[in-house]
Amino acid sequence: MSLSVSTTPWDKPLNPVCKWTFQGTSAQSRITFSCDSFTLRKCLGISLDIVGGSLRKSYCGIISGLYEVSSVNQMEVTLSSQARGLAPNDGFSCTVQAVSASSVGGTGNNCVTMPTSPLNTDNSCYCGRKNPITRIVGGNPSSVHEYPWQVAITKSNLYRPYCGGSIICDRWILTAAHCVYGQLAANNLVVIGEHQWTSTSDTSVTEPREIQQIIIHPDYDVQFMDNDIALIQLKTPITFPSNNKIAPVCLPSGNSLYENVDAVATGWGTLSYGGSQPSTLYEVTLPTMTNTRCSSLINGITDNMICAGVDQGGRDTCTGDSGGPLVTASSTGFMEQIGIASWGYGCGDPRKPGVYTRVTRYMTWIQNYAADCKYCVR
């Protein structure tokens, strides 16, 4: 059975909630929900909620490869709106099927209120623990697994990182929207535990992971690089080893602006503008600055961005580092991700700091999507 909302502007009274209920023909049935296209950009006012036993998900934004399976023989799909109408050209086209059943029935147009699921925490693992040392310009190679949350994003048929990302919990990766904009989940991989991508002997925990779905922030501005943030859901969760060789980074806590603090950027990006790409993960330490200071050096800075760099240049992120984390140590020593490598003028040019997506501006958005994830404690 197909379920579609037209891209024709949709105008209904405020606060409508339309629900479809799908029932398998046997107790062993499982309901699958997949979308060829999905665009609901008004995340503050519109969402699609999917409930089927232990499955509880809420979606908005521009999503590639949306696919869910119920844990029971029933699924409820709810389109809720706290605002009037879809944005122009918004809508979705999805298919509902019963696995091991001959048919699926559906009813709709009932009004309900969906609950919000609390975040899950896992006391058996820790986030933000940098392992000790026994596109980066002016940086140095990192030690193996020094930054265990770093991931590489690669094409399925080409094992070379074109962007970076970070593990934030057992199922979700944080990266830049421009890294995955227009990409299909099936054509890309997330590689965890990577260090030297040209070698298979430098580490035993490197593993390519298939992508379940890609979620781009609904307000991502392609031209001005505002809201340059995206989430990647893995098909299978990560089991974090006790040796900390693969581990999540901590998300920032509180409302700190993280101005004038030392931060570390990591990635496999080129070592100079137009230069070569290293095979080994590099790191570079950069001081952050106020947005007022950054705006005096380069144009286009918004409250959703944070800048880092040195006036003399020579230290920066560069091509291929995009999507990678900018982290700083919290007061208790755990590493928090405060930025996502986004854009800049050149690489390491004097008085041209790198620009990063400010993670603190998106905590609610991140946690709404990744509420089903297991977050490691500090």
Can you describe what's shown?
There is one protein chain. By secondary structure, the chain is mainly beta. It has helices spanning 177-180, 291-297, 363-369, and strands at residues 2-5, 17-23, 30-40, 46-52, 55-59, 61-64, 67-69, 74-81, 91-99, 105-107, 120-126, 140-141, 150-155, 158-167, 172-175, 188-192, 207-216, 230-234, 262-267, 282-287, 305-308, 325-329, 335-343, 354-358, 374-377. The protein has a seven-stranded antiparallel β-sheet with strand order 12-20-19-22-23-24-21, with no helix packed on it. β22 (325-329) and β23 form a beta hairpin.
List the topology elements.
Layout: E1 2-5, E2 17-23, E3 30-40, E4 46-52, E5 55-59, E6 61-64, E7 67-69, E8 74-81, E9 91-99, E10 105-107, E11 120-126, E12 140-141, E13 150-155, E14 158-167, E15 172-175, H1 177-180, E16 188-192, E17 207-216, E18 230-234, E19 262-267, E20 282-287, H2 291-297, E21 305-308, E22 325-329, E23 335-343, E24 354-358, H3 363-369, E25 374-377
Parallel strand pairs: 11-25
Antiparallel strand pairs: 1-9, 2-8, 2-10, 3-6, 3-7, 3-9, 4-5, 4-8, 6-17, 12-20, 13-14, 13-16, 14-15, 15-18, 16-17, 17-18, 19-20, 19-22, 21-24, 22-23, 23-24
